[in-house]
Structures are given as structure tokens and as C-alpha cells.
């Protein structure tokens, strides 16, 4: 069993919250006293605190600002987070905000984390602007480690283009991120993909690490493929004469 | 073209850079902070400059100054911050300065909340003091936001007028794949800019006209530009309107939710379509007017208490009844809620 504290960091929008939620729900099946701490102080929408009901149903404790404060853009870390870090009976997932700005919240907790069994997993999507090549990733890791005051122990490959993701894209991305891991000397912890692509590929492991099957929990219910919207650049052509200045 | 997965705010900022925006002045406010943050890292890579101003008022006067010297410039904010920018936007319109402004809307009034909203339609389309219009573009996806931002810089230069990108918080915060096209090669005359007068008469960039006749003439000149925008720049998307007896009017994210509801209603045999204004000024009046006689009821759906509905009603002049459904305060309507509204109207129409 991996150490009882798993921390997810990464660049903005790399998929940390979705993966943290999935991990919490998986851990809840085999471990006692699982908790997830929402440390996202930088992102106003799509935070793990939005999955309160599903987490409660699975018996996962959510450590996040309570009540109306959950909807605020205030830098709140609830005191229960430090309690859970220091409680050896708790299995704790820390969902940290993006980039070095988001990791600053983790930096304030680093002194308490250091004495405990922990791993720091850096989520990487090579289809995001600043982590598409090795140099960009190296710079991002340095910035994140600087403000987190902890070293990255694993990379998590989360290659995706949102609704445009397909099997080829995942395979190519996972290979690329596995290459980054080797070049950086940081082991790969997991490869993430949606359940349907994992089924298409017929894999539960890739590059010697487990595949995390993801369902997008934080996407809105109405969400649909944006390619169905027509291209606004062609719109002028089909205009009929608008009436003028009546 | 390489596809990237980007958050709306980042994509808007990158699109501006690729359109040649060299200067950005802003002040933080949720949910658009990623725009200034991105610009603060990115602009120096292209030889530009980023300034976090001391206030929204200051930032919008800085874009006035930058546009006056002929640079491509942008600022961004969210609803309450936009109210503070209005004075200088009117000055930009009066002085005929090409500026691009982004408003990522949140709920109000007052301090309101940080969740998505469309309650700045009035503020955007019937803006600040004096007689003027900004050209207002309302994207419904991250890709469309990218394309419209790139167009916005050309439109601003072409008309020498403020162009506003009006998006709800979801467009700012959502992530979608995008590609960036090459910017157009259009060259715009900027001989009016204050660039240091060597071998020419001094240029003056100003919105002050103390003689009433001069100011009236100037107003008429501005309104000839708005008339040209109404003739040439209207953009609208129509969806399943050919045989529609019911039609939804919605823009931005709400239009995408409405489309999901339209698809569901179609499977139940309800003849419903969608008209999505992309330009909010100039408003696509004709796209509504042409369905007089065909569409029996229009349903206007917004994340507000009903603002665009006024323009929809003016477009059809009471010849089609216009109903309203809206959610506010950061509540986002679900496809199911809109579908229920469509079902009720379908029943009314069939009776």
C-alpha cells in the first residue's frame, strides 16, 4: 500500500482535482478513514468541494471551507487539514491548486507533512501550453517545488484534449510523458485515461504503472462537444440586410 | 495546426498576443484573474509590457493612452470592475481609439458573487455616459473566444472604436481544445496616432468638443460608424430554425445549454430551434424579424433577470410573443429546466 498521504500538484488545468477525487473514491473501497482536502485557493470554479454528495456517499471526508465560504475566492485552509496530516489513522489526499501560486498553500503545510509518510504526485498533461515539452515541464516543476517546499516524487501522465481525446492521442501522450519521467529521473506513478479509452486499449497497466480510469465528475451536465458550434468566421456570409437605425 | 487544451481566460490572453497585442493593463478580480496572470508571464516574451494598475479606473485610462500612440492594447475585468472602466471606455469611443476589453461576467448586483452570470448585457450594449456603442462579441466556446478576440483587434482598428468581448464566467474558467489561426495581414492606417510629430502637423487625440455644433457633428460621425457596423458586422448562429414553430434566443454558454434542450425536444417531435446572437451590438435584429409569421413563440433564456429580451422584443415588435426563463446569482440553468419550458410552450401553441 502506498503511503497514507498522497498530494497532487501540477500546472493549472492539468486534471489534479478529477484525479484526486478518483483516488479518494478508489481508496475508500480498500482503506479506512479516507479524507480529501481541497487546498485550491486559486481556482474559483470546478473544485473538488463541488463533489460533496458523491464523496459523502462513499464515506470520504471532505476538508474544505464550510457552507457559504465554499463559494468564495478566499484563501481558506480549514484547521482540520493539519489535523488529518498529523493523524496516523487517516488516509489523506491533498488536492492542491495549480502552478506555483496554488502550491503556496501546500508550502504552509510542508513542515507538518515532512514528518509523515507522503508522496507528491505531479500531474502532467502534455497537451497543455506550458508542459508540452521537457523544458517547460522542468521549469514548472521547479516553480511548484519552490513554493510547495516539497519535492515531486512521481509524475502522473494525464494526456488529454478534453472532448477531442482519442486512443491515439492518449498513447502518444503517455509515451511522451513516460519519456519526460525518464529524462527527469522521476518515476511515473500512474497513467490516467477515461474508462472508455482504457477499455479500447484493454489495459490496466501501462509503462509498469497502474491505469487510473477517470470519469469527469466536475464537468457540467450540459457539456457537449464544442465542435458542434459552427464557426463564427463564416457567419457574416449568410446575413440578410439588417434594418438600419430605426 | 497544433491543438492545445486551454482554459478560456488563458486562451483569450494568448489569442490577444497572437493578434499583436503588445500592452496589457489590468487589475485583479475573480473570475478573470488568469487573463492578467497569463499576460504578466507572456507579454515580455514578445517585447510587450504588462502593468498591474492601481485600480480598474487607472487600467482603462492606460489603454486610452496606449491606443492613442497606435499600439494594440487590451484590458480585462469582471462585472463590478467593468463598471469602473466605463468612463474611460466612453472617452476611447469619443476619441475614436481602437481598444479591446474583455468582461468575464459574474453575478450581481453589487459585490454579488464569483459564479457565472450574464447580467452585464445592459452594461455592455447600452454602456457608460454619452452617446456611443462598443462593438460587443459574445463567444459560446473557447475556440470561438479565441477567434473573436483575434477579430476584435482588427475590428477595433477598422472602426477606431472599442470592441468588447462579453463572456460569462464559465467561458473564462472552462477548458476546451483550441487551435490558433494566423492573424490577418490587414494593415490599418494609424496616421492619426500621437507618435511624435516630425515633419507633420501635431495629431491630437481627444474627446473634448466645446462648440455644440462640433460635438453634434462628431456624434453624427460616430453614429455613421455604428450604422456601418449594423450593415456589415452582424453575426448570428441559427440552429434548426427552418421548420421551427418555437425558437429560443440565447447567447454564450446559455446558448449551448439551450441547444442540448432543443435536441432533446426535437426527439419528442417538438419543432423548436435556436437563434444565438454572436454580436450583441450590432444586435442581429433581422435574424429574429424574418421568423415573424413562422415562429409562434420566442423563449429568451439568460443567466440574468432578463436583459437581452428587450432587444429581442424590439426586433420582433410584438409580432411574436416573447417569454423569458432565467437563472441568476451564479445558478446555471440545466438542459432539463429549459426542456420543461419548451414543453409547456409547445402545449400552449398546440391549443
What does this structure look like?
The complex is a heterodimer of chains A (246) and B (351). Chain A is of the alpha/beta class. Chain A contains seven helices and nine strands, in the order E-H-E-H-E-H-E-H-E-H-E-H-E-H-E-E. In chain A, strands 3-2-4-1-5-6-7-9-8 form a nine-stranded mixed beta sheet, with helices on both faces. In chain A, strand 6, helix 6 and strand 7 (188-194) form a beta-alpha-beta unit. The longest helix of chain A has 18 residues, at 167-184. Chain A starts with a strand and ends in a 32-residue tail after the last strand. The model of chain A is unreliable at 228-246 (pLDDT under 50). Chain B has 351 residues and is α/β, with parallel strands linked by helices. Chain B is built from twelve helices and 14 strands. Chain B has helices at residues 8-18, 34-42, 56-68, 79-94, 121-125, 142-159, 169-173, 212-232, 252-267, 285-289, 309-316, 335-350, and strands spanning 4-7, 23-26, 49-52, 73-77, 100-105, 135-137, 163-168, 175-178, 236-239, 246-249, 272-277, 279-281, 297-302, 322-326. In chain B, the strands form three sheets. In chain B, strands 3-2-4-5-7-6-12 form a seven-stranded mixed beta sheet, with helices on both faces. In chain B, strands 9-11-10-13-14 form a five-stranded mixed beta sheet, sandwiched between helices. In chain B, helix 3 (56-68) packs parallel to helix 4 (79-94). The longest helix of chain B is centred in the middle third of the chain and has 21 residues, at 212-232. Chain B is globular, with a radius of gyration of 21 Å. Chain B starts with a strand and ends with a helix. The model of chain B has no long low-confidence stretch (mean pLDDT 96). At the A-B interface, loops of A face strand 1, helix 6, helix 7, strand 8 and helix 8 of B.
What is the radius of gyration of chain B computed over CA atoms, rounded to a whole number of angstroms?
Answer: 21 Å
What is the H-and-E element order of chain A? EHEHEHEHEHEHEHEE
Shape of chain A: globular
- The number of domains of chain B: 2
CATH topology of chain A: Rossmann fold
Proportion in helices of chain A? 25-40%
- Strands of the largest sheet of chain A, in order across it? 3-2-4-1-5-6-7-9-8
Q: H/E series of chain B, N to C? A: EHEHEHEHEHEHEHEHEEHEEHEHEH
What is the 3D shape of chain B? globular
Broad CATH class of chain A? Alpha Beta
CATH architecture of chain A: 3-Layer(aba) Sandwich
Tell me the distance between the termini of chain A. 73 Å
Q: What is the distance, rounded to the nearest whole angstrom, between the alpha carbons of the first and last residues of chain B?
A: 52 Å
Oligomer: heterodimer
The rounded Rg of chain A comes to: 20 Å
Mean pLDDT of chain B: 96
Helix/strand-derived category of chain A reads alpha/beta
Fourth CATH level, the homologous superfamily of the largest domain in chain B: Thiamin diphosphate (ThDP)-binding fold, Pyr/PP domains
